[in-house]
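In full, the data:

***
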Amino acid sequence: MNGNKPSFCTLFLTYLKIGAFTIGGGYAMLALVQREVVDRHHWLDEKEFLNMMALAQAAPGLLAVNSAIFLGHRLAGWKGVAACVTGAVLPSFVVILLIAVCFSQFKTLPAVEAVFRFVRPAVVALIAATVVRLARHIW
C-alpha cells in the first residue's frame, strides 16, 4: 500500500469516476476499480485487492458500495467512507433520477434500444476479462 494518505477529494473523485464509467455495476466495475486502486494509485496490492473484493462480495449490499466502504475506511476512516460511497453512488443516483423523470418520453426510441443492445455484451466482456485477470493470481 502507498504510504501517502489520499485526500477526501481524491477518494471521492476516484469512486465518482468508477461509478460514472461502469455500466452494469457489480462485477462490471471490477476492472476499473482494480485499475484505479491497484495500478494507478497503489492504495492496495493485488492480494489486498482480491481480499477486498472477497469481503465486498461476502457482505450484504452492493459490491461498489462495499468496496468503497472497505477502501475508504482503510485509507481515511469514516470520512473516507463518506467520500468513497458518495462518489460511487452519486452518478447512478443522478442518472436514475433523470431517467425516471424522462423515461416515458424516450423508452421506445430506436437509438435507446440500440444502446442497450450494445451495452449488454460489453458488460459481459468486462466481467470475463476481469475474471481471467484475477484467476491468474489465484493459480
User: Anything to note?
Assistant: Residues 63-106 form the longest helix (44 residues). The helical segments are 8-21, 30-40, 46-58, 63-106, 110-138. The chain is about 80% helix and 0% strand. Residues 46 and 137 are 8 Å apart (CA to CA).
